[in-house]
Amino acid sequence: LALIKRGAAATNAEVPVPWSRFSAWLECVCVVTFDLELGQAIEVHKLCKTSICYLSFPDSYSGCLGDTQLSFRLRQSVGRSSSWFGHEDAYNRDAPVTLQKEHAHFHGYVYFRQVKDASVKRGYFQKSLVVVSRLPFVNLFHSLLQVIAPEYFEKHEPCLETVCNEIDQWPAPVPGQTLNLPVMGVVMQVRILWMEKLFRTNIILIHFTALIDLHVIRCFQSVLIHVQMLWELMLLGEPVVVMAPSPTVSSETVLALVSAIAPLRYCGDYRPYFTIHDSEFKEYTTRTQAPPNVILGVTNPFFIKTFQCWPHIIRLGDLKMSGDLPKQVKVKKLTFLHKDKAFIKRLLKGIQKKRPSEVQSAILRRHLLEQTESFILPLERYLESLMPLQRSMSPWKTPPQIRSFSQDEFMKTLEQAGPQLTLKGDWTGLYRRFFRSPNFDGWYRLRHREMIQKVECLHLEAICAADLLTWTKDKSEVEIVDLILKLREKLVTRKHQLPVKEELLERLEQSIQTIISSLPEDLQTLLHRQ
């Protein structure tokens, strides 16, 4: 495994950190080659090195000749559980949840080449170029590899040095901006959306075509009649194994499944390509406990027997596996909603008429998106009812509390404000099962944090609208100084943690200065020094 990675931090604070722009997009660029004695050879680097090597090569059962692209995802360190929360930077604050950086996992994007080569002892040239990132930009990084990998296989390391230097000149990934990313004479254009645009249908579709998977219909075409059931499996975070004929099909299908519930983030674990060498192999294949909430994409026939006790198995294509094969879709009884036969018929008719796959994918994406939005909308409405009224905000008191989420109370609202879909079925049962899933926990924790921020913003607005100077007229100097210190603390905190309008912060700063100017000179001097 040869590696190019960002350099060490500069010692002089005035000098930009070497490779800082590169590291905003990528963790590293790796080259994995096959060694006759060692298998996938490791030369340098400790970034989950063994896993990266095994995940960068298709297994021998796939029979991949020529060029192959695939994706993988792995934990940053063994035994460290996934967390969508607790790490927030400027990018994650503004990006939709489905496009945020992960801090406990890496995403790997692979371009593998295997061609006959008489000069090689094994008879084949086998090498992978891999980019590793915390960003889930599947289409972008695969497009990047399509540009640089063929050139690298011809010119080797000097080519990669040049590419990495070009990436180090890219602008930072900023939501809401259209970015031009030049590399090797090609300019890739990408737009990352703002978080508040999350529930706009047309924009979500653009978001997927730009950064994730344009041809989702290709992934679901062989299991199209089960698409409703697959959506439910993803919504509920159920354990699923995808058995595929190649790592490309495996990784594309797992990523398509995860994105099927957008704009909800899938909060369980998922591995687009999983091998017997994975560090979590024992954890995910033990039979002493129920399967974990994870989606695994596999190609090795060994997994047919290993995962036969898993409740949900999807088999795709010609797996080239011996022995008894599971039927195409094996699902433990779960279906809550009836199939939308008219929609499935529309897609099947599109296949018969050879409708372009881009159009078919857009139709399917829109259907899944509208279904997820209809499911989430009653929950969003109920959350709004838990918020304190704006008129209850007092600048002289601590902000009022948000009411607790009650599942039973929410269920009562469904009679009047249930999902507005033509689909019939057990919506109540689906919601109750959703409440036990990692996706509900992830969604609620994120929304509750946003609600707390909104309450803080409303409280800040109430403070700015109040006549603070008049309030200080009959207060002691100690009380006034205490008020100033608290307002300053609130000002600093809000600048770094809340999406507050600049004019609001400026008004608060002006109020603080007005109060300070009303104090004796010695206190003014003391407060200005702090």
Automatic annotation (TrEMBL):
Domain of life: Eukaryota
PROSITE patterns membership: DENN
Family the entry assigns: Belongs to the DENND6 family.
Positions of the UDENN domain: 1-445
Molecular function via GO: guanyl-nucleotide exchange factor activity
GO CC terms: recycling endosome
Species name: Sinocyclocheilus anshuiensis
Pfam families cross-referenced by the UniProt entry: DENN
UniProt keyword list: Guanine-nucleotide releasing factor
Protein name in UniProt: DENN/MADD domain containing 6B
